[in-house]
Structure formats: C-alpha cells, structure tokens
Amino acid sequence: MDMQFKRKSTTTIFGCVFALFLPKICFAEKICTVPSEPVTIKENNTDDTVVVHINTTTKDVTLNLTENPGNAFYLRGSELIAKKGLDFETLSSPEELTVQVRCNKTGFRSNTLIVIVRVENINDNTPSFGQSEYTLNVNELTPVNTSIGLIEAIDDDSEVLYYSIEPTLNRYFRLETMYTPNILVNKVLDYDVLQQVKLILYAQDTPLPSQHAPMPSQPSERSFTATATITVNIKDIDNRPPWFQPCTRVTSGNAKICLSLGYRGRVNLTEKQDGALQLQPGPVYARDGDKSRNEEISYKIVRGNEDNIFQIDENSGNISMLKPADIAGPISLLVLASQVLNRDQFATTSVIIDVMKKSRNPPRFEKERYEGYVYISSGPENMVLRDRTTNRPFRVRARDEDFASGINPDIRYEVQYSSYVNITTDGFILLKKAVRTDSFALQLRAVDVSTGESGTAALSVLVIPSAGVQSPDESFRAGDMALLGFVMAALLVLCLIVIGYLISRVKKGNPDAFKLSEVSIFSSKLMFRVMLEVYSAP
Ligand SMILES: *[C@@H]1O[C@H](CO)[C@@H](O)[C@H](O)[C@H]1NC(C)=O
Ligand SMILES: *[C@@H]1O[C@H](CO)[C@@H](O)[C@H](O)[C@H]1NC(C)=O
Ligand SMILES: *[C@@H]1O[C@H](CO)[C@@H](O)[C@H](O)[C@H]1NC(C)=O
Ligand SMILES: *[C@@H]1O[C@H](CO)[C@@H](O)[C@H](O)[C@H]1NC(C)=O
Ligand SMILES: *[C@@H]1O[C@H](CO)[C@@H](O)[C@H](O)[C@H]1NC(C)=O
Ligand SMILES: *[C@@H]1O[C@H](CO)[C@@H](O)[C@H](O)[C@H]1NC(C)=O
Ligand SMILES: *[C@@H]1O[C@H](CO)[C@@H](O)[C@H](O)[C@H]1NC(C)=O
Ligand SMILES: *[C@@H]1O[C@H](CO)[C@@H](O)[C@H](O)[C@H]1NC(C)=O
User: Fold this and answer.
1) Average pLDDT over every residue of 198-206
2) pTM score of the predicted model
3) Which of 115, 126, 331, 382 is most solvent-facing, going by the fewest CB within 10 Å?
4) Whose alpha carbon is nearest atom 6 of ligand 3?
5) What is the Rg, in whole angstroms, of the alpha carbon atoms belonging to the chain?
6) Which ligand is nearest to the CA of 311?
7) Quick one: average pLDDT of 228-247?
8) Domain tally, the chain
9) How far is the CA of 144 from the centre of ligand 5 (A)?
C-alpha cells in the first residue's frame, strides 16, 4: 500500500511538473460531463429521442459509445440519442440501462461517462383474455356465492385491472369484486326458468368511471379494455322425482311439486279381465319432474295387492289382472314410480279398483217414451206435470230386474240434452228456467252406479197455456170438492122428497100438475146458488 501510494504521488508530482508546460492535463480532470443522476425517458418514445446532452470542455473531443445496451443508442455530435422506441415490457432491466461513453482528445486524459437511462413504464398495452369466448356450466340449485369460474385477463403493463360484467343488473351472476373476475352465483338458478345466460366480461386497465376510484392522475392517460363473452349453461340436475300424470303444479318456496289425484278403475266380481285395465283419468303414467333429464321410470305395486290379483308392467305402468277378484268393493293399490338410475327419486300414488257385483239386467225405465206438461207461465223450481187437466207432478221410475222388488238403491237419474230441466233423486222433473218454446224433448238416463249400467227413456214436454182457474193457486182444494159433493147430495135428497110429495098429490087428482115444473125450476136455482158460493170460497 505504502509503495503504491508513494508511486502515485511520484506520478502526480511528475505530472504537475509536466503541467507547467501543458497546464490543461492537470486541472481539467474531465474533458466531458453528464448529469450524475439517472435520465428517465418514457417507453414507446419516438425514434431519435435525445437522451442526454454531453457537455465537453474543449472542442474536438472524440466520443465513443463503449457500452450500448440493446444497441438502442447512438451518438449524434455531443448528444446521446435513443434510436427507436424503447419498450419497458421487453427490456431485461428497463429500470437501469447503463450506457458508457468514452471521451478522447489527443493530449488530454480520456474519461468514461456512465449514463444511467431509466425507461418509465407507461400504459401502452391492451389487456387481453386468453380466449374471446368462454363456456361455463353450472348446475341449477348451485348455492349462492359459489364460484362458477375465474376468468382473468393479462396486461403486459402489469397494472391493476378493473373488471365488470354485463348485463350489469344481472340477477343470477355477479363478480366477486371489481379486481377479482371470479364469477359467482347471485341467485339460485332454476333450469325450468333459465337454461342459458350470456355475459360480457370487461377488463379495463384504468379505473372504471362508475366506481368511486380516484380519477387517473393524468386525464389524458390512455385506457384499454379487453372483452370476453361468456356463455353460461344451466344444467338440469336430478332434483325432482317422477310426477304421475295428469297432475296439478304447486310451488312451495323454491320447490315445485306436481300433485296427482290418483287413478280409478273397475272390474267385475269373479271375472278376470284380459289386457290392461282402463283407468280414469288415464293409464298409470309418471314423467320425470326434471324436464330435460326425463329419466327412465319403472313402476311397482307396493301395497294393497296382498291377494296378487293385479300386476303392473314395470316399464309401461299398465295394470292387468292375474286372477279374478272374489270380494266386491274397492281395492286400493299403492303404486310406486321410481327413476331407474336413481331409485331415491320416486313417487307413489293410489290406484283404486272397484270390484263390481255382476249384474244381469241394466236399469230400465217403465216406459220408453214419456210425455209431460208445463204451463207457459212456469219458472224455476216448478214441476213438469203428468197431464193437461190435473196438477199432478210427472214422475219416472227405472226398475232393475236384478232386484226382486225391482228397486235398485244404486240408481241415479240424469237428464241429457236439455238445459231446461233437472231430475231429482226421486224421479221428479224440475224446471230450471222459464220455457220459451212450445215444447222440448230430452233424454232421461238411469245409472246403476254400482255397475255403471244404464237405461234411457225419451221425454217430450209440451208447453200449455196457463188456465187462470187451473193455476195451482186458484184450483179447487180437496176440501172444497168434498163440501160441494155434500151440498149437492143434500139438495138431491131435498128434490126427491119434494118430487115424491108432488107425485103423490098428482096421483090423487091432477090439479097441480103445473107445480111439478115450478119445483124443478126452484131446485135448479138452489143448486146454482150453492155452486156459486162454493166457487167463490177463498
Ligand atoms: C453543460 O454546460 C452548460 C454551459 O455550457 C451548463 O449550463 C450545464 O449545466 C452543463 N451541464 C452539465 C451536466 O454539466
Ligand atoms: C471512435 O469514434 C470515432 C468518431 O467519432 C470513430 O472514427 C472511431 O472509429 C471510433 N473508435 C472506436 C474504437 O469505435
Ligand atoms: C480513445 O479511445 C479508444 C477506445 O474507445 C482507444 O482505443 C484510443 O486509444 C483512445 N485514444 C485516442 C487518442 O484515440
Ligand atoms: C406508442 O407509439 C406508437 C407509435 O409511435 C403510437 O401509435 C402509440 O399510440 C404509442 N402508445 C402510447 C401508449 O403512447
Ligand atoms: C354472499 O356473499 C355476500 C357478500 O360476501 C354476503 O353478503 C351474502 O350474505 C352471501 N350470501 C350467502 C347466501 O352466503
Ligand atoms: C262387467 O260385466 C258387464 C256385463 O255384465 C260388462 O258389460 C262390462 O264390460 C264388464 N266390465 C268389465 C270391466 O269387464
Ligand atoms: C299398455 O296398455 C295400452 C292400452 O291401455 C296399450 O296400448 C299398450 O300397448 C300397453 N303397453 C304395454 C307395454 O303393454
Ligand atoms: C241436478 O240435481 C242434482 C240433485 O238432484 C244436483 O246434484 C245437480 O247438480 C243438478 N244439476 C244441475 C245442472 O242443476
């Protein structure tokens, strides 16, 4: 060390002595200078941008670039120039490019300038998504806040990106935050309501105007946006059991259910019916409640078939008989429909089979054709009458020869093809409204509800003018008629007595023969008066 120091001092002394002749070597240590602090230039600069001006203390200094990273610089006179646009994103160390310039001049000590060039990152890149279109699948009933996908964009400027989706007021999906493009379920999805949603996802490299983020520092700062379309397919999951058809839909909260009222059919006692039983309202049939899955369904009788009278076709649901039923009355079967691949999804329904007693004779009306009458003035609740002259109500009766008495308690009457009348359970016919025609016809039906057998008869009803005295209010009452009969009889007896007396007188002589006619006139007058009194009685 000491040796070195001494040698250096010796050189300096020698130099200074020499400097008496060439003073510049000694005092102007550096023939060129640049600012010591780093020079900053923005990336994406225009070609031939001046980076720094090199100050030279004398003329004719030779400048040589001894270190030129990326061959990006050149010298023009005493200026260091950037040849082309510098790209922050592609430079290996954009924050610190070291450029060295050597300054030479004959007779002067050459020196090397170190220029640190700092390339500033600016927003010159567009963010981009890996794909322009994405397809996501989500099961219906996925819980709210579940992520269905994270779709991020990249930006070479490695800045914060701001995301948004459209439609902005989407009820079903939302972004986790504006910085994390995690697409979340916002509302429980129902395949029946919605099968597909199209979303547009935006990634912007400057804050979104709608958000209350600070405005960009320079209003003129550029902003780039990337766009991707997202198709979300909602998948029908197996969340519903089979539904027996027909059924009535009801909703209970989010759940939809479909209620069937069951099926009904009939067979004859001690008769085995061939083929599938005809049921009401239709054959046993269930369909998957998950419309688009439409899983295969199989059927089974799970209860009520203890005597093995019935069997059900596993695939079609057709119910048929294995042997006759030997007890009358309803047999109630419980039928199960379950999905073949997922037996946990099932439904049950009731199938009631009425076993009917054998009937040899259907009900039969006493006549095939009937006639009835109504007054033109009749209205609702008035009865159809049996004949023109009396006010006796018309009545029908159907007999069933299967019964010794002819009376089958299971017979029900019906009116067909007429809106004017209805029939009571006792066979009386009631008007439902005023009649506006001269006559009308209809069919009466007697149904044995225990066998389903029926008989019919025709009824024609004639509309007759209302006779004042014959209308129900003014007609004779039975009591009036009895009184009249009694009075007439009394008069007759009186007349006979008078006539007998006169005859006996005539037989004795004949002088009062004219009086006979007098008496008969008197008696006739008397009868007439009595009759009038009876008629006018209230
Ligand atoms: C270069 O020289 C000029 C005067 O000639 C002076 O104003 C400037 O500050 C100098 N620059 C440096 C970096 O020394
Ligand atoms: C130094 O620069 C001069 C002109 O400025 C040039 O002629 C010379 O070839 C350069 N020398 C080297 C070694 O690059
Ligand atoms: C100038 O610098 C170069 C290297 O760039 C060197 O080769 C040369 O000897 C120096 N001196 C002169 C006087 O050119
Ligand atoms: C980068 O430079 C190119 C061409 O010079 C220009 O079109 C573009 O707008 C510049 N980008 C930015 C962000 O300044
Ligand atoms: C979903 O997330 C939001 C915000 O994090 C929260 O307010 C809400 O309660 C969550 N909903 C459910 C069902 O977890
Ligand atoms: C029952 O028997 C009657 C005849 O007595 C027949 O008309 C009817 O079709 C039978 N019903 C069934 C379901 O076989
Ligand atoms: C089920 O019964 C119906 C008639 O009721 C018939 O058309 C159909 O072919 C039957 N299906 C099977 C598989 O037996
Ligand atoms: C007819 O009368 C019966 C009772 O006898 C009643 O059940 C039925 O509803 C009535 N029909 C009409 C159409 O009024």
Assistant:
1) 93
2) 0.55
3) 126
4) 104
5) 59
6) 7
7) 94
8) 6
9) 7
